[in-house]
Design brief:
Helix content is 4%, strand content 57%. The chain is mostly beta strands.
Length: 330
């Protein structure tokens, strides 16, 4: 079970220089095709932190089409991970333990700023708690599968929330009123780019949202999705673990343009969604050895409309093995 202490740094072996703690906080203005992230990766034993801010409007296939990117490496690591301000202008505060957050940011050149409140809609989901995740043993997977590695066995929590506030992007102001999920991860994390996992978020408001973590394969240039590793549905403030799911997507380059998701929760209730892209970008700046092809998807469920991140995360070495001229698995 996740507690308020999990919003901060966790005890670790000071000699483990790979120990990493991350916080991911997304935001969007779907009616304007805008999607953005604030991602912080701290290595407290090295005394450094990297912070990546990205905001794009519309469907951006190339990095030069992205409206704003500010990746900062080797900033001084703060003493606390629950309330801090970084030298890049980002401030993060956990207000209600590991559930609610306040983010502010102002770019030094004035190109982008935001003031956002994340209001969590439920108790944080712990994929390592067998009472919350019915696929706990399956989620650990094969330790020899390079797509999974030790990241799947490290600490992690997910929270669905309502993000409100204001974004200013290159002189234009937008009101943010958006639903999505944030997360915090911690544990050893070597810089090895062999992972391939899809991070999927489907959100319909205060009462209904979904999260799925699904490993991926690339064979002859085609991306396919494996069985669900873990996930949950947030239904009126309660979380119910998912027991199975299937995912398909069409794409331009590696950016998904449509998807089809089916899943079933522990209650036996089945769900089906079709998504179409509103905006997206290749996110190269959050981690030097990975790229995340993020699409902001629009979903329909009955007469309701929802949105969420569809993020296909690839290690650069994973891609090179399968898609470069020298790739042994090409």
């Amino acid at each position: 079970m996740i507690t308020a202490k999990d919003a901060d740094f966790h005890p670790c072996n000071p000699a483990d220089l790979s120990w990493t703690e991350t916080t991911f906080l997304p935001f969007g203005v779907p009616e304007a095709g805008i999607f953005g992230n604030a991602y912080v990766l701290a290595r407290p034993n090295l005394g450094v932190v990297s912070a990546a801010i990205i905001v794009s409007q519309g469907f951006c296939r190339q990095p030069y089409e992205i409206d704003f990117t500010d990746p900062q490496m080797h900033l001084p690591c703060p003493a606390s991970f629950s309330k801090y301000t970084l030298d890049n202008g980002l401030s993060v505060e956990a207000i209600n333990g590991a559930r609610d957050y306040h983010l502010t940011y102002r770019n030094a050149l004035g190109a982008c700023s935001f003031d956002l409140h994340f209001r969590g809609l439920h108790r944080p989901f712990d994929p390592h708690d067998p009472t919350e995740n019915p696929l706990l043993e399956a989620a650990k997977g094969d330790p020899h599968d390079p797509r999974i590695g030790i990241e799947w066995t490290n600490g992690h929590f997910e929270v669905k929330g309502h993000i409100t506030g204001e974004l200013e992007l290159r002189g234009r102001r937008y009101e943010v009123d958006y639903y999505d999920g944030m997360d915090h991860s911690w544990g050893p994390r070597p810089q090895v780019g062999t992972r391939a996992v899809s991070w999927i978020s489907v959100n319909f408001g205060d009462d209904l949202a979904f999260h799925l973590a699904v490993p991926m394969n690339i064979e002859r240039g085609e991306v396919t999705y494996d069985a669900l590793r873990f996930g949950f549905v947030m239904d009126h403030g309660q979380t119910f673990g998912l027991v199975e799911a299937s995912v398909r997507a069409t794409r331009v380059d590696l950016l998904a343009t449509t998807n089809h998701i089916r899943c079933k929760d522990v209650r036996g209730r089945e769900w089906e969604f079709f998504g179409s892209v509103v905006g997206g970008h290749p996110w190269h700046s959050f981690n030097p050895c990975h790229v995340c092809y993020q699409s902001l998807m629009r979903y329909h469920w009955g007469d309701r409309v929802g949105y969420g991140e569809f993020g296909d995360i690839f290690g650069l070495d994973y891609l090179a093995e399968r898609m470069s001229r020298s790739g042994r698995h090409r």
